[in-house]
From TrEMBL:
Family: Belongs to the TPP enzyme family.
Native source organism of the sequence: freshwater metagenome
Gene3D superfamilies named in the record: 3.40.50.970, TPP-binding domain
UniProt-recorded name of the protein: Unannotated protein
Record domain Thiamine pyrophosphate enzyme TPP-binding: where: 127-265
One cellular component term from this protein's GO annotations in UniProt: acetolactate synthase complex
GO molecular function, one term: thiamine pyrophosphate binding
A single GO BP: L-valine biosynthetic process
Length: 309
């Protein structure tokens, strides 16, 4: 059980809670303080389900679910109502969410987008949301989305795979767009351009450091080269268009009616993020003359005090 899913072992605070780890390989099923179950994931879950016949959760827990759902929706409304020069990730996610249908399938992976979709995407159907965040797999948004499109086509679904990808991930792995085009598959990429690896800059600064070589403007050139993502996607055979938050939903709806691969490029705010609430144990120097580093180290030690082990 790794850092992202456990809040560096601070999230599962109930000492009576148990985690079941399912995997076909014994080595991978063995996770810290979990109950290992060796088997196929789907078959194992079905077997476990049969053993839960008649189980009902406590009414207070069901009531908490309802109030939490309402709180989530209220928080989303607050985030997307902000007036910004460039849209935030939350505003982009919400615009696509509102325009998507129950048959569509959204996918994301690395950078800031997993946190943005986990907080701001409201699923409209079962098995319609894929967030690969085990190891922040940069580029899965491109290649993984193509695989999802193949699977969706084979299932006979009329929906579209929608991949939310940042400019950093796109630059690291984008060639499978050509593969998807040549295979005759149909999907939509929403490419959020914030001029660099903004989530890494956020990590640097939040831990007491100064921004260093994470944004493309941080260059030795007076006028750093800027990628034309629309032209690049077109060169791989995709239909590509630059959009704004005002016409994003309309362009998305239009792309859904078209065959092939579409790429919608939108400039996004590099510093306006959805707030986080979980602890992440990132190493910070315990000895420093920099006040920001000292403050970050204090937050680190306070967070570690809440770890389960």
């Amino acid at each position: 059980m790794q850092d992202f899913t456990t809040g560096s072992w601070t999230i599962f605070k109930n000492p009576g809670s148990k985690i079941i780890s399912i995997n076909t390989a014994r080595f991978d099923a063995t996770k810290r303080s979990s109950i290992s179950l060796i088997g196929d994931a789907k078959e194992s879950i079905l077997d476990l389900q049969s053993k839960l016949t008649g189980y009902k959760s406590d009414p207070s827990w069901s009531a908490k679910r309802a109030t939490t759902q309402q709180m989530v929706k209220s928080n989303i409304e607050k985030r997307i109502s902000k007036k910004l020069d460039l849209p935030s990730y939350a505003q982009v996610v919400a615009a696509i969410n509102n325009a998507a249908t129950t048959s569509d399938y959204v996918l994301t992976a690395a950078g800031g987008l997993p946190g943005e979709l986990n907080n701001n995407w409201l699923s409209k159907s079962l098995d319609s949301f894929d967030c690969e965040y085990g190891y922040s797999c940069m580029g899965y948004e491109v290649a993984g989305a193509w695989g999802a499109a193949i699977a969706l086509k084979q299932s006979g679904s009329k929906g579209k795979v929608v991949s939310m990808v940042g400019d950093g991930s796109y630059l690291m792995l984008n060639s499978e767009i050509l593969s998807a085009v040549n295979n005759g598959d149909s999907l939509i990429y929403i490419l959020c351009d914030n001029l660099g690896f903004a989530v890494i800059q956020r990590l640097q600064v939040s831990n007491g450091s100064k921004s260093y070589r994470t944004m493309f403007n941080d260059s030795d050139l007076k006028a750093p080269f800027k990628v034309d993502f629309v032209s690049h996607a077109k060169s791989l055979g995709a239909r590509a268009v630059k959009v704004t938050i005002e016409n994003l939903a309309a362009e998305f709806s239009a792309a859904k009616d078209l065959p092939g691969v579409s790429v919608l490029v939108i400039d996004t705010d590099a510093e306006n993020w959805t707030e986080g609430g979980a602890f992440w144990e990132v190493a910070v120097s315990g000895i420093s003359d920099v006040s920001e580093v000292k403050q970050a180290y204090k937050r680190l030690t306070e967070g570690k005090s809440n770890q389960r082990w």
